[in-house]
Task: inverse folding
């Protein structure tokens, strides 16, 4: 609860400070703070604030402080586009970060092209974002095809023969089913059922009963953490005992352990961040500092798997501004191509993606397979 | 075959909770002619009260349940007195909009207070399910089904066996005549709304531990509750209970044998079909003529 | 001369309850006929059957030789059979003038094949002007010119009845069914209304009315049809009905108010006055 | 007076962008508000003038958006049994026309339905219809791309043979396009309401039996109203798709219908100006609240403002203000705003 009030106060303070700090470099943050994605959006913003404060404590960028202009897109594509418009034209932010969900990001993208302002995409997974020829998009989260590619070498080691999917009915879930399905078929693994569940659905027993009756050995699940908790509980209630691997990076194993209890035991998760074992992350020191600061601010530990993207996103933007030498959209867009540093989940540097001449930037983060064992997160030995 | 049996068992479990959601709404709809768009928010409030009682106050699970239901009762009474009473006599659209406004405010209020992160309510039941042959059922969900059926029975008895229930039924038939016969219609309305709200809160408090608790949980629940109410016929408590089970069956079989993507569509398709075949719902009582 | 309206062995049942049983009578063009009977005798049900608001369970109704079987109320109106209503006889939220304009719905637009398109393009101006004139004339005819721009729901009860009549006349009917037109009117209003009914007949419109006010019925009717418990028990000119034993029995069987009504029906010839006693 | 007011408002709206200067953000808010207001205008035709509350109105809006987007993007669908439909992209303006027609056709369906089920049942049937359409848009991935969204929807191009084409890319162009379509829709509603047809709708709403008895065909009247209303909503949906340039099944969100209902009822249902006034207030309220308070609080205020308006002016803002101007107490029954019927 304190977290919420801190955020509110911070927003009010940020608003009050508008104008007073005209010399600060402003970064627009376009996230869902109300509506269905409110929890995740808020975590990302919290992470972004930690990064901004850290950068400012070290003297800022180009000798100036950075200032986040945070706006709520209400988990709604129309609002996301409107917010982008406001940030670019009325707050005059030369660079944006956003917008969590893929449909939100896709709605913002035409605005980026119109005003030629770059945006760092921190969470969205839809393949379309980096293949539609928008040269102002730079993404640090992996699209599912990239995630599937990273997972490929582990398939044989896990001994998977036939796989069913249970995915969220959105770009995130459907994209994962398509991309992982393709990869598995290439590896000679059979793909069985592809079951769909609605965002916000609470009772998946019908889908699970069907999966229980199938002859597959593994179920791959793509959804956000709240629904995963429900799924594991309902799987336990149905006596469904198959190997479960979740994908998508929104799993948050701590929340799963806390809320699903023993029902989550033995589940495996593909994740892009390892906060439980900082020493195994690419930059252990940064991970530790980030987690320490996160805890110091009184946020729930479970939020770090979401918020590190906000943290890395702002750090990447700061690097780009530094390299651009001036806080101007065109210069920053160009400078993104030369960003190269180690984020909390691997190197952040952008490779070209999409139609030639209008490529978007895509960074390739690390992907880890973890397992929940006796209420703790472990890295399975394969 | 095993799959079918499991689907049918699921139907029973799910249907009980749907029925509980439906009857609270049908009471308010039928007696007060109010399309209650706070039903989902009150369901959410019930779940959060349960969470507060169990997780924050450390109350016993079975003790927390009546606390949450009582909370819903008081919440409902307050909404009726503050927001509905001043609008008595306005048309149905106006009160509906007032309820929409209240629903938006309530939902955003819970988001503000509790944040968007889902909360889990611990339950005292064993994690391992009850296993009968190929079918498994969780103990918690069995308890929820039992409690839901008990609450439905209680509501039924209250309406059909008590003086208050008689007055409520009189108000349902014809509020003006009931008033002439000496029924305090204002008090009946408050009691009805409070009771409907308590049932919504009860559904939230019972389902909170089964699922997780978050501010938007009421949205889909509310739509389904409307569907159940229409299926059963306005103001018909028994009809709503049966409607709950029909909806659950349609969803289970739809998802199991047609396509899980269209799971939620099943219920709505049934509603359209039913209303085309019988425009007053499956179990509507004959309406007065004239 | 062939009858303008024939009720041919019509019957209506609601579940087990018989509202009308085997009702059979004719109305000749130009007549004023009254349908009377104690409360619950099935008079309004009979009206609803004749105007398509209820489907008879047996028999049928013919209007100008056409069977009304399966026709919707608005289709029956278009054949030239109009009606008024007992309780809500006006569009309460509209002005008297607009009420009659709504009543003129079917008039004056027949020359155009696409009235909707005309409305959208603003081409309906001429026919609208013609309708306005007719509305004003009708309102003037029922004597409400002074009230034309008032909200119909705010008018006195008797005046609302007049609006109802103007509405029904706006459909240019050949026959008009009036459902208890003078209930709730005082003596002088009733007298005016009786004159109006006669004027309606002078316009060439056949009138069938349901009414409780016996003196008024006796005064205005050419012929009376009496119903009891959904059955026709008597039919004939007022003088014959007044002395019909079955009719007296039917009314005596009812409460004291009805008995008074029957007594008044007996005595009104002597008094010659119109009273408003017959509301049981 | 009542005839000058719409003209004055129109003049103000035409001049507004000049006054706002270069503020694309506000212009964007106005465009989105304008599109929703067209939706509210169309909803008012059903809710305000026939008394039928459609809580599935967003279905027509969404169908319009999808038809328009798919017409201008092209698609390829396998219908099974070896039938394939391949559609090459057509100009966006054609999409706009088809969107209007398709939504109108769906309105015909709902209009036929509305004769069978009324009141609360009609409300639920329309909600169900909208949900089913949303789920089809979500799950028929081959046609609609489902949750993957339709992206890259082209801007509307207006073309006149011999003169050349004109693509509406800028905010200002879109603003005037929306304003033009909105004004046209308003005029259609005003004309209809003032005509024989409008009187039939009012008659049915106030006293259905009486209306039938004067020869008004209820089925036909309600169906025509539903078709026109749906077609307008479809047109609004098409504008939305070509303005935002991306749509996904979220365009069918129930909350958008709720916004439209709020605009109509708070503004004054059954009045010509109500939806416009309500649309401007509830479309721009979130914009005004955004810089002032926390996101959650904005929604709370939004809900409370709605309740307060209904409390003070139960029949809506426009009739409420009209009463104030005439200095007389509010009457219990709704009174139709003086419409062009009375004197021309």
Result:
């Amino acid at each position: 609860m304190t977290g919420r009030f801190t955020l509110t106060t911070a927003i009010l303070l940020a608003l009050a400070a508008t104008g007073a700090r005209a010399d600060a470099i402003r970064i627009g943050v376009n996230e869902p703070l109300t509506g269905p994605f409110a929890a995740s959006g808020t975590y990302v913003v919290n992470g972004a604030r930690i990064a901004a404060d850290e950068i400012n404590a070290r003297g800022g960028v180009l000798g100036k402080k950075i200032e986040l202009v945070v706006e709520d897109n209400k988990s709604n594509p129309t609002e996301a586009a409107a917010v982008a418009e406001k940030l670019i034209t009325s707050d005059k932010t030369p660079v944006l970060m956003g917008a969590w969900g893929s449909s939100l990001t896709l709605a913002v993208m035409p605005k980026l092209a119109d005003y030629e302002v770059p945006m760092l995409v921190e969470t969205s997974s839809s393949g379309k974002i980096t293949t539609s020829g928008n040269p102002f998009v730079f993404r640090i989260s992996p699209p599912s095809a990239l995630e599937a590619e990273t997972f490929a070498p582990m398939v044989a080691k896990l001994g998977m023969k036939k796989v069913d999917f249970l995915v969220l009915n959105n770009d995130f879930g459907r994209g994962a089913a398509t991309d992982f399905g393709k990869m598995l078929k290439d590896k000679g693994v059979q793909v069985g059922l592809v079951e769909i569940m609605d965002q916000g659905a609470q009772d998946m027993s019908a889908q699970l009963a069907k999966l229980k009756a199938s002859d597959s050995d593994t179920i791959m699940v793509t959804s956000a953490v709240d629904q995963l908790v429900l799924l594991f509980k309902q799987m336990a209630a149905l006596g469904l005992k198959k190997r479960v691997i979740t994908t998508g990076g929104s799993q948050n194993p701590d929340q799963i352990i806390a809320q699903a209890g023993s029902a989550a035991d033995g589940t495996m998760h593909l994740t892009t961040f390892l906060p439980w074992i900082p020493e195994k992350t690419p930059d252990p020191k940064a991970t530790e500092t980030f987690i320490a600061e996160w805890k110091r601010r009184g946020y729930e530990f479970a939020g770090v798997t979401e918020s590190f993207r906000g943290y890395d996103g702002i750090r990447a933007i700061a690097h780009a501004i530094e390299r651009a030498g001036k806080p101007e959209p065109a210069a920053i867009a160009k400078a993104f191509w030369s960003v190269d540093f180690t984020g909390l989940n691997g190197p952040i540097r952008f490779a070209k993606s999409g139609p030639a001449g209008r490529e978007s930037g895509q960074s390739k983060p690390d992907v880890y397979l973890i397992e929940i064992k006796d209420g703790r997160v472990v890295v399975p030995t394969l | 075959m095993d799959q079918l049996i499991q689907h049918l068992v699921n139907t029973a479990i799910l249907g009980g909770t749907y029925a509980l959601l439906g009857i609270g709404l049908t009471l308010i709809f039928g007696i007060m002619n109010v399309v209650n768009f706070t039903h989902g928010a009150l369901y959410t409030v019930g779940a959060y009260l349960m969470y507060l009682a169990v997780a924050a106050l450390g109350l016993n699970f079975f003790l927390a349940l009546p606390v949450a239901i009582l909370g819903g009762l008081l919440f409902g009474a307050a909404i009726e007195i503050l927001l509905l009473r001043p609008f008595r006599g306005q048309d149905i659209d106006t009160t509906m909009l007032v309820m929409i406004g209240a629903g938006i405010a309530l939902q955003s209020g819970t988001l503000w207070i509790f944040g968007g992160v889902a909360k889990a309510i611990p339950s005292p039941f064993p994690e391992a399910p009850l296993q009968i042959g190929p079918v498994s059922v969780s103990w918690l969900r069995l308890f929820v089904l039992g409690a839901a059926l008990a609450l439905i029975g209680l509501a039924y008895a209250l309406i059909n066996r008590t003086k208050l229930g008689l007055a409520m039924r009189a108000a349902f038939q014809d509020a003006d005549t009931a008033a002439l016969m000496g029924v305090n219609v204002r008090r009946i309305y408050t009691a009805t709304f409070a009771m409907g709200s308590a049932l919504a809160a009860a559904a939230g408090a019972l389902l909170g531990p089964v699922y997780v608790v978050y501010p938007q949980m009421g949205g889909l629940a509310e739509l389904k509750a409307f569907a159940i109410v229409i299926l059963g016929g306005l103001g018909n408590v028994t009809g709503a209970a049966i409607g709950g089970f029909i909806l659950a069956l349609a969803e289970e079989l739809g998802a199991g044998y047609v396509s899980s993507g269209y799971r939620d569509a099943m219920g709505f398709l049934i509603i359209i079909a039913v209303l085309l075949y019988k425009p007053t719902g499956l179990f509507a009582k004959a309406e007065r003529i004239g | 001369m062939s009858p303008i309206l024939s009720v041919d062995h019509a019957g209506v049942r609601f579940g087990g309850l018989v509202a009308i049983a085997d009702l059979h009578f004719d109305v000749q063009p130009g007549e004023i006929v009254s349908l009377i009977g104690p409360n619950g005798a099935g008079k309004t049900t009979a009206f609803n059957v004749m105007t398509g608001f209820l489907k008879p369970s047996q028999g049928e109704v013919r209007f100008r030789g056409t069977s009304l079987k399966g026709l919707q109320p608005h289709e029956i109106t278009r054949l030239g059979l109009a009606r008024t209503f007992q309780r809500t006889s006006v569009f309460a939220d509209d002005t008297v003038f607009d009420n009659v304009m709504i009543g003129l719905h079917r008039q004056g637009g027949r020359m155009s094949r696409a009235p909707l398109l005309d409305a959208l393009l603003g081409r309906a101006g001429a026919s609208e002007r013609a309708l306005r004139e007719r509305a004003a004339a009708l309102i003037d005819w029922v004597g409400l010119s002074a009230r034309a721009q008032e909200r119909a729901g705010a008018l006195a009860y008797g005046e609302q009845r007049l609006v109802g009549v103007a509405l029904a006349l706006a459909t240019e009917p050949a026959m008009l069914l009036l459902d208890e037109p003078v209930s709730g009117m005082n003596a002088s209003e009733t007298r005016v209304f009786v004159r109006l009914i006669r004027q309606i007949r002078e316009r060439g419109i056949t009138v069938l009315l349901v009414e409780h006010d016996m003196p008024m019925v006796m005064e205005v009717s050419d012929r009376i049809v009496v119903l009891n418990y959904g059955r026709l028990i008597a039919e004939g000119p007022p003088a014959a009905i007044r002395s019909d034993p079955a009719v007296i029995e039917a009314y005596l069987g009812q409460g004291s108010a009805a008995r008074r009504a029957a007594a008044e029906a007996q005595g009104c010839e002597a008094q010659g006055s119109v009273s408003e006693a017959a509301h049981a | 007076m009542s005839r000058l007011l719409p003209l004055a408002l129109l003049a103000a709206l035409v001049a507004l962008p000049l006054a706002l200067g270069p503020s694309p953000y506000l212009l964007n808010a106005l465009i989105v508000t304008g599109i929703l207001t067209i939706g509210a205008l169309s909803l008012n035709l059903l809710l305000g003038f026939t008394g039928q509350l459609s809580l599935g109105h967003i279905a027509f809006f969404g169908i319009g958006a999808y038809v328009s987007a798919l017409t201008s993007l092209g698609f390829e669908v396998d219908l099974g049994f070896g039938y394939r439909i391949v559609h090459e992209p057509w100009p966006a303006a054609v999409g706009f026309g088809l969107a209007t027609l398709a939504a109108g056709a769906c309105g015909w369906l709902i209009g036929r339905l509305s004769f069978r089920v009324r009141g609360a049942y009609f409300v639920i049937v329309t909600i169900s219809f909208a949900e089913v359409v949303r789920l089809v848009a979500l799950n028929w991935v081959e046609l609609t791309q489902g949750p993957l969204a339709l992206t890259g929807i082209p801007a509307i191009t207006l073309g006149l043979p011999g003169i050349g084409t004109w693509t509406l890319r800028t905010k200002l162009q879109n603003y005037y396009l929306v304003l033009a379509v909105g004004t046209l829709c308003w005029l259609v509603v005003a004309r209809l309401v003032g005509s024989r047809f409008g009187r039939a709708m009012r008659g049915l709403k106030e006293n259905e039996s009486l209306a039938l008895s004067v020869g008004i065909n209820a089925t036909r009247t309600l169906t025509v109203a539903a078709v026109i209303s749906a077609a307008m909503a479809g047109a609004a949906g098409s504008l939305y798709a070509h303005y935002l340039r991306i749509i996904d099944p979220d365009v069918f969100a129930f909350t958008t219908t709720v916004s439209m209902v709020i605009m109509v009822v708070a503004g004054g249902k059954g009045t010509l100006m109500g939806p416009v006034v309500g649309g401007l207030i509830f479309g721009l309220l979130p914009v005004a609240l955004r810089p002032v308070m926390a996101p959650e609080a904005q929604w709370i205020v939004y809900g409370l403002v709605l309740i307060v308006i209904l409390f003070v002016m139960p029949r809506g803002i426009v009739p409420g203000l009209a009463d104030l101007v005439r200095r007389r107490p509010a009457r219990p029954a709704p009174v139709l705003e003086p419409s062009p019927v009375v004197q021309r």
